[in-house]
Amino acid sequence: MDELSKRKALGDFIKSQRSQIAPMQLAIGTTTRRRTPGLRREEVAQLCDISVTWYTWIEQGRTVSVSPQALARIADALRLPAAKRSYLFKLSGKEDPQLPGIVDDQIPTDVIALLRKIKSPAYLLDRYWDVVAWNRSAQTLFSGWLDQKSQSKNILLYTFCEPAALTFISDWELRAPRLVAEFRADCGMRLDEPKIMALVERMCAGSSAFKRAWNIQDVTEKEGGERRFNHPTLGTLSYQQVNLRVANRPELKLVVLLQG
User: Fold this and answer.
1) Model pTM greater than 0.85?
2) Alpha-carbon dihedral angle through residues 9, 10, 13, 14, given to the nearest 10 degrees
3) What is the pLDDT of residue 188?
4) Which residue intervals of the chain are DSSP H helices?
5) Which of 56, 65, 84, 181 is deepest in the core (most CB within 10 A)?
6) Where in the sequence is the signal peptide annotated (predicted)?
């Protein structure tokens, strides 16, 4: 879709959701009969603390820029469930500022069950590239990291700040800078997020190689391909990496290493 079509699709979706909210659901009193179902634009604008004119422009697709914060207030006012809220932000091309961080007990149980059934090394990355879950094969492959209670399970910290990674990742000189470019692409809309800023600052302070790669500002999509490792006991290992997004939690990435 072109920009105009995207704005219209966003406005039409918001309008359709407004029409499905009964005033009584939000404890909004009414003394007059309504000609159309749902909330009035004035009521939603008041709930969102934005002007009626601007809200009307959003529904009509006339405004060029709607901030993520304004969209979040609209989503809250319309009481959008998770799927509809995600769809709203996809239409806008913006990142939901209220997207929660991932902790272990928030990972869908079916994803954990799938992870355990996969025979090949597999792990789950959150939006900050922390490995939040992994299977036994991954624990065996990444011995000295995932099999220990290390300070951090962040894949960037491991790659650049763990001395053993330099020899474990057989083509470290090529893979490490590409990893930085993939991370920049993945968090491009969230570079001003405090946790992202803190991670980048920590990485730049702890690794001159990361700092050089980060300052180049290279960007590339996270792709699969051959991954080779020099395991201390298993010797040279080669895998084909497959990256998958969790459908109902797109901020989670499932990485599977398939041995040919």
Assistant:
1) no
2) -150
3) 78
4) 3-18, 41-48, 52-60, 68-77, 82-92, 109-117, 136-141, 155-161, 165-168, 172-186, 194-206, 208-216
5) 181
6) none
Burial label for 88, CB within 10 Å (0-12, 13-18, 19+), is: buried
Distance CA(61)–CA(121), nearest Å, equals 47
Closest CA to 176 of 143, 146, 148, 216: 216
Q: Is the pLDDT of residue 54 over 50?
A: yes
pLDDT tens digits, residue range 19-45?
Answer: 888 776 655 555 556 566 688 899 999
How far, in Å, CA of 70 to CA of 225, rounded?
40
Name the amino acid, one letter, at 63. T
In degrees and rounded to multiples of 5, residue 132 shows phi and psi of: -100, -15
Domains of the chain: 3-92 (1.10.260.40), 104-258 (3.30.450.180)
> In Å, what is the CA distance from 221 to each residue of 30, 187, 212, 218?
52, 11, 19, 10
Find the helix or strand (DSSP H, E) in which 257 lies.
Answer: strand 249-258
- The model's pLDDT over 158-176, given as tens digits with 9 standing for 90+, comes to 999 999 999 999 999 999 9
